[in-house]
Amino acid sequence: MPETETETTAPRELTEPAARLRLAITRTARRMRQEAGSELGPASLAALATIERAGPLTPGELARAERIKPPTATRILARLAELGLVSRAQDPTDGRCSIVTATAEGTALLRRLRKRKNAYLARRMKELPDDDVAALERAAEILERVLEGERR
After folding, report:
1. Domains and CATH numbers, the chain
2. 109: left (phi over 0), alpha (psi -120 to 50) or beta
């Protein structure tokens, strides 16, 4: 797929800091997934979290929210349903479609994984000086703002 100019062009002075930030975020996310120790892959966990946060959802709504293709969403939902992490019900407004909701087991799994990830980060942050912790808190606020702007 050819890249567009906006995908490959960045202000020169921001390219290197953006690359370092991307790598740090990627490595941190990978390490937190390892700490959480789930048998589910990142795409399935992300889908389950989206269903919990924004659900109930149709498979199409999940695909749009996760920016994945509908057949991928269907496969992920089949696996989550097989594990008892989501339940499906017929859409009352469109009988051809289903509505997916996180089960109590799915919500409990997310809670446990989040707790493990939070504990890992808290242990690592405890080793830092107070001004570094404050800088990370500020960075979290900035990243939230950056991501919020993407949703508009």
Report:
1. 25-127 (1.10.10.10)
2. alpha
In the block, tokens 């269907």 appear at 74
Task: Write the DSSP assignment of the chain as a string of letters.
Answer: -PPPHHHH---HHHHHHHHHHHHHHHHHHHHHHHHHT-SS-HHHHHHHHHHHHH-SB-HHHHHHHHT--HHHHHHHHHHHHHTTSEEEEE-SS-TTSEEEEE-HHHHHHHHHHHHHHHHHHHHHHHTS-HHHHHHHHHHHHHHHHHHHHHH-
Do residues 47 and 109 touch, judged by C-beta distance below 8 A? no
- At 103-144, the pLDDT tens digits run 999 999 999 999 999 999 999 999 999 999 999 999 999 999
Instruction: Report how far residue 8's alpha carbon sits from residue 21's, in angstroms, rounded to the nearest whole number.
Output: 17
